[in-house]
Design goal:
- The protein is α/β, with parallel strands linked by helices.
- The protein has one domain: Alpha-Beta Barrel (TIM Barrel).
- About 40% of the residues lie in helices and about 15% in strands.
- The strands form three sheets. Strands 1, 2, 3, 4, 5 and 6 form a six-stranded parallel β-sheet that branches. The protein has a three-stranded parallel β-sheet with strand order 7-8-10. The protein has a two-stranded parallel ribbon with strand order 9-11.
- Strand 7, helix 8 and strand 8 form a beta-alpha-beta unit.
Length: about 325
C-alpha cells in the first residue's frame, strides 16, 4: 500500500555527507522508497540555530532542487495538490519541501514569501530552542530542570510575531506544523489558525509520556480542526525510557490510540527517518509494508488507507495553494 510520510531529515543529512538520494546507507533513498511504495515524502530542511543560520537553509534548498532535477524520472517536487496526482499518474514519487525551524525567516515575514517561492509547503515552527515565534516543550536550555523529555511548557505560547507568522503561512498555503512546539504554543495555534494544521512527527502522550507527544486533549482538538498527527518512529517517543529500538507494534499502539481518541481521520505517518538514531524493526523506508501488515488485525483496508496516505492528502488538498 502506498504511503505519505510527513517528516524525514534525509535531505539535510545527505547535504552534510555529500551523498545522493538515489542510493545511500540512510533510512531513505529512492530505492528504499520505491520498495516501500512511497507516494509522497516530506523532506525537512533542518537548521540547528545554535550553530547555523538561514544561509545554511538556503544552501540545503539548492541541494534539494539539484537532487530533484537529477532524479526527475523517479521523483518530482510538489507545489500543490494537483502536482501530487499528476506525478502519481506519471509513475513518479512525490517530494514536498518543508522547514524544521521556523526562525530561519530572520524575523522578517517577507521571507516566508521567499521560502514559499522556492517550494516550501510546511514549516515546523520551532525545534528544540526558543525562537521569535514561540517555545518548544523539549528544550536544550541550560535552565531546564529534570529530564527535558518530560518537561512541559504550559506558559510560553506564540509571540505576537508568531501569531502573524502562522496567519501569513495560511495566506500563502504553507501548512502549520506544531511538532516540537510547547503545550501553550499548540493551544495558540489551535486558537488562531483557520485551516487544518498538523503535528508532522509526534505521538500519543498517553502511550509514551514524553513532551514531544500530544495529550489526548490535543489530539481531540487537532482532529476538530481537521488536522493530522504523523506518528514518529523514534524509540524514546514510542515507549518510555527506551533509547535503542522501535518495534512495529509500538508504532501500531500509537496509531490505535490516536485513532481511538481523535477518530480515524486524524492519524497519519511521520517517521522522522534519518533524524532518529535508534534501530527500527523494519529497518528503513523499504520496510513500510511490514507496518501495513501489522495494522491489519486492528483496522479495515479503508481505515489503513486513511492512516497511510488519505488523511494527509486531504489536509494537503485543503491547505496548499
Amino acid at each position: 500500500m502506498k504511503y505519505i510520510d510527513m517528516h524525514c531529515d534525509t535531505m539535510t543529512v545527505l547535504y552534510r555527507k555529500h551523498e545522493d538520494l538515489s542510493h545511500n546507507d540512510l533510512h531513505v533513498d529512492l530505492e528504499k522508497m520505491e520498495e516501500g511504495e512511497c507516494l509522497l515524502q516530506n523532506f525537512a530542511i533542518f537548521t540547528n540555530i545554535a550553530r547555523e543560520d538561514s544561509s545554511f537553509t538556503w544552501k540545503v534548498i539548492d541541494f534539494y532542487e539539484a537532487q530533484m532535477q537529477k532524479h526527475r524520472d523517479r521523483i518530482r517536487r510538489v507545489l500543490n495538490y494537483e502536482d501530487i496526482l499528476e506525478n502519481d499518474r506519471n509513475g513518479c514519487m512525490n517530494a514536498m519541501l518543508t522547514l524544521e525551524e521556523g526562525s530561519v525567516v530572520d524575523n522578517d515575514l517577507a521571507q516566508l514569501d521567499a521560502f514559499y517561492d522556492r517550494g516550501v509547503r510546511m514549516i515546523t515552527l520551532t525545534w528544540n530552542y526558543p525562537n521569535g515565534i514561540g517555545c518548544p516543550n523539549f528544550t536544550y536550555a541550560k535552565e531546564t530542570q529534570g529530564n527535558p523529555l518530560y518537561t512541559f511548557n504550559e506558559k510560553d505560547g506564540l509571540t505576537d510575531f508568531g501569531i502573524g507568522y502562522i496567519r501569513r503561512m495560511e495566506e500563502l498555503g504553507i501548512i502549520v506544523d506544531v511538532s516540537h512546539l510547547s503545550d501553550a504554543g499548540f493551544y495558540d495555534v489551535a486558537k488562531y489558525s483557520t485551516k487544518p494544521f498538523v503535528a508532522s512527527h509526534s505521538g500519543a502522550r498517553s502511550v509514551c509520556g514524553v513532551a514531544r507527544n500530544l495529550s489526548d486533549d490535543m489530539i481531540r482538538l487537532l482532529a476538530k480542526k481537521g488536522g493530522v498527527t504523523g506518528v514518529n518512529y523514534c524509540s524514546e517517543f514510542i515507549e518510555d525510557h527506551n533509547e535503542t529500538y522501535t518495534s512495529i507494534q509500538g508504532i501500531v499502539d500509537h496509531v490505535r490510540h490516536i485513532a481511538k481518541v481523535g477518530g480515524i481521520d486524524c492519524v497519519g505517518l511521520g517517521s522522522d527517518f534519518d533524524g532518529i538514531g535508534n534501530a527500527l524493526e523494519f529497518k528503513d523506508a523499504s520496510g513500510m509494508q511490514l507496518l501495513y501488515q501489522a495494522l491489519k488485525p486492528y483496522f479495515t483496508e479503508e481505515e489503513i488507507e486513511k492512516i497511510f496516505w488519505k488523511n494527509v492528502l486531504r489536509v494537503y488538498k485543503e491547505t496548499m495553494k
